[in-house]
Amino acid sequence: MISTKGRYALRILIDLAEQEATTPVPLRDIAKRQNISEKYLQHIAKQLVDQGLIVGTSGKGGGYLMARAPQECTVADVLAATEGSLAPVACLACETAGCERQDTCKTFPMWQKFDEMTREYFGNVTIADLLSGAIASIE
Predict the structure, then answer these.
(1) So what's the pLDDT on residue 136?
(2) Which of 13, 15, 38, 77 lies at a C-alpha separation of 20 to 30 Å from 102?
């Protein structure tokens, strides 16, 4: 399940893309437009900065800008930055060494295919797609 952190991170990036800003957008403005706690968005924004998805500046006139163009930022990038692994089962999570039963597990191929489909789908949806409403045409 994708947490509010992942969903709100997408909302931050969509909001920044909508602004088409050349100057940093204050987080309080994003929080107000999105009706989300500014304090909560601060934690999410830090993760997005740490992962190179947005750039932050502090002080007077400070705020955030997208680090890459909306068509170059995928949902997979955003969810990886905020959620970590989206693997449906622990044995497919990147941080695990696999499962000792993998070779005999009857369900492993199913989980593996589901994981591949999820990563492929989110890897092909960009912030630009979400912004334009083009998501319905993505296969």
Answers:
(1) 62
(2) 77
